Amino acid sequence: MRRPAVRLVCPTWASPGQPLHVEAGPDASRFVVTVPPGVSPGDSFLVRLAGLSPADAAHSARVVPPSPAAFTARCPVGAGAGDRITVHPPGRPPCDVVVPAGVEAGGEFVVLPPPADRPPGRVARARALCCPTGFAGVIWLVVALNYAALVGVAPQRWQPLTYAAGHALLALQVASYFATMLTPPGAVPESWCGDMPLPPRARFVRRHGEAVLAFDHFCFWLGVPIGLRNRKPFVLYLCYSALLVLFALCLVAYELRRISGGLTWRPSTTTRADLAGGASLGVLLGSLKLVFLSLDEQTQEWAVWCFCLAVVDLIGVGLLVPFAAFHLQLVLYNRTSLGGDEAYRYDIGWAANWRQVFGARRSLWLLPIIGDGPTVDGLHWPENPRFVVWHDHEAVSNSPARLSRTREEELQLATVGSTKKGA
């Protein structure tokens, strides 16, 4: 049985794709419908309401006018119909809404703010901050395994200087992580909304719902966009994570060397000959088994820990060290991960490039503290003079007048050449 259809009139404040609250039936039941594409304010259209009987459809249906909490929002530059953006209702916390169909960048539309949700509890907020993604959970798991093994399971105590260095790196890594998560990436000011284009190097991030100044990339490991304000703590987080896992690998290698140095087992003449002549995997594993069995029970347990940590830390070093070096190179050359067309354009020297991200105060360069912030505002960027000269030269060389003049010169040379051959 088909659902009964009711006729509605599109109100003046609605637009195609915008949800409407409708009251229908004798008991004024509430329904939510969407304005069809191509319907203008004042036009009538038919909708079918689920759960409405034909008898109830005989009663007139009406569109519920927006509540006093409704407000007008503007679609930011870079966004379009169907994108989820973050709006700031007056007197209410920010919320995410979907841009209705037919609304372009700079256009306005009426927003009915959703009902206030129950605020998440402390456990939910802590989980969203400490472990926003599964990748972040893997990072903390690797840190926890190294800390538990090297501090709790290790049979001998380390030197005080080793303890101090390890805990200092761990504290700097954790502080850099929370600074990256809690520092806003840098929003475009309201004066740039509307029909004005986005500032240079700014992009609209659909996963974030807002435009970000000096947008570098969206970090899927942490679930946050990296922009002008939180790029420094993010780079420090990468560097300290790489140094921490490299430090742990050095400690594990030291322990493996210490364990192998105290062995009493020596390979026999036959085993040495097999190993020297290219032993099979079975012979090699058998030799390692004999080495393992020659250890006492406590040392065997610690050797297993060290072997597992060595594998994990080697993978971590292979991933984090190149990644940290890559982002340091981007900072020194004043580039971004997604700015493929800005090579050398904003490169004004290593020192000036570094201060644009890490600030002017050298005492705060290695600390995840914003301080006085970057030396640029994210709206205006100094450019490389050589790039400007080269860009102007290319623009003049590729101008239509220059190209047409060059074409005429080529035709004249070709005409002169053919005349000489004919003579």
TrEMBL record:
GO terms for molecular function: protein-cysteine S-palmitoyltransferase activity. It is a multi-pass membrane protein. It catalyses: L-cysteinyl-[protein] + hexadecanoyl-CoA = S-hexadecanoyl-L-cysteinyl-[protein] + CoA. Residues 196-337 form the Palmitoyltransferase DHHC domain. Its main location: membrane. The keyword Transmembrane helix applies. It is an enzyme of class 2 (transferase). Pfam families: DHHC. The DHHC domain is required for palmitoyltransferase activity. This is Palmitoyltransferase.
